Amino acid sequence: MRPQFPALLRHFIDGAFVDSAATFDNVNPVNGQLLAKVCEADRATVEAAVAAARRALAGPWGAMSVQQRAAMLHKVADGIAARFDEFVAAEVADTGRPLQQARTLDIARAIANFRTFADLAACANSDAFEMSTADGLGALNYTVRKPLGVVGIISPWNLPLLLLTWKVAPALACGNAVVAKPSEESPASATLLAEVMHDVGVPPGVFNLIHGRGADSAGQFLTQSSGIDALTFTGESRTGSTIMKAVADGVKEVSFELGGKNAAVVFADADFDAAVAGVMRSSFTNSGQVCLCSERVYVQRPIYERFVAAIQEKVAALRIGYPDEEGVDIGPLISHGHRDKVLGYYRLAVEEGATVVAGGGVPVFGDARDCGAYVQPTVWTGLSDDARCMTEEIFGPVCHIAPFDEEDEIVARVNDSKYGLACALWTTNLSRAHRVARRIHVGLVWVNTWYLRDLRTPFGGVKLSGLGREGGRYSLDFYSDVANICIKL
Q1: What is the pTM (predicted TM-score) of this model?
Q2: Which of 46, 118, 225, 303 has the least C-beta neighbours within 10 A?
Q3: How many angstroms separate the Cα of 359 from the Cα of each of 325, 346, 380, 422?
């Protein structure tokens, strides 16, 4: 499947595509070949994008009603849908993910993001309070939502368009203008989104796109700009900490969705086949490169051996290959650099005493894929809870399976982490499901499922997994200034 994006990916500022002198390579992780050159923004380019966003707020965009903005976002959704296959090709080329996943998850969800937040903003309610006063006449208080202003958006490479639009859509629905920086590893679909914004008539400066890396590049320059009013970021916890320091002096609004070391807990009374299928999804979807993936799997002792054997059999049957091949389950990692990191953990696990149940190395194809960034899906047992491979986020197709005995024990073990993003519980005991879910210190608990998302619900983590919540009215709250108006009667 040939991607349709140009050989040079440019910035999109004030309604036009612009070049910059410096460029970097966008490399296909399937075979290591060059996909495109990408312009790299310097500080002046970033400031030009921020200035364009500020001008847009004072222009037609700032005068639009929320219903008019919602109608515009529906046009953006229609524009993505009309070029659906182009977006799929761009995502697959950048990430190497299986074609079917890009078709059913990534692009469809991007369309849903624009439609959902357009509708939520258009029908959002405000609060009103009547109060009594000493003169007996009273007063009325009511709330209104105002745009924050210019929102800086830094999105990751693992689900490029999905996570970019998860932020762009509510930010625009609330009347802000944005400066978006996608990951340098996956810039293509963001460029197509800029084309759609232009083609459907989004006013110049409302959506601005800058390309570049993080440190000493576009990411750092955006976080340091005095012209932004808020910043939202999805990525590594360490980077989130750096961004928080950069925006602290200006007291900017921030929303961070950071890393995770998520657990799946399988109780002995679980539907065994459903739990096996669920853990396979939660550990190996997108080659494990989803912040919500389960790297720690705990199975109650009566079914532990049977469960390990079932996972071993399922992993052996996973098909690793080209993303557009029929029935492919596992694609490459995003880059050779990330592959080196994951392989480092594969070696470390053995040094720490792991038993390698499946995988543990690099597949050999005998063709162009050997120049790609593939690793084998891997399963371990035998590590202690304090091993580095049990406490550090790996972000690859890997899980460790450990036994447990009692409910109190497993709650303590799951919570003994510096992260707190998500957890999946597998049990047919309804009382246990409610009881344990409340005790797990994470932002999101699934019971008998994984990655089932209602876009109206809050999303975010605790501890090193993030700050703030987005989704539904929580996104509207973040991307708006809520002001109170008090009228004396």
Answers
A1: 0.96
A2: 303
A3: 21, 9, 9, 25
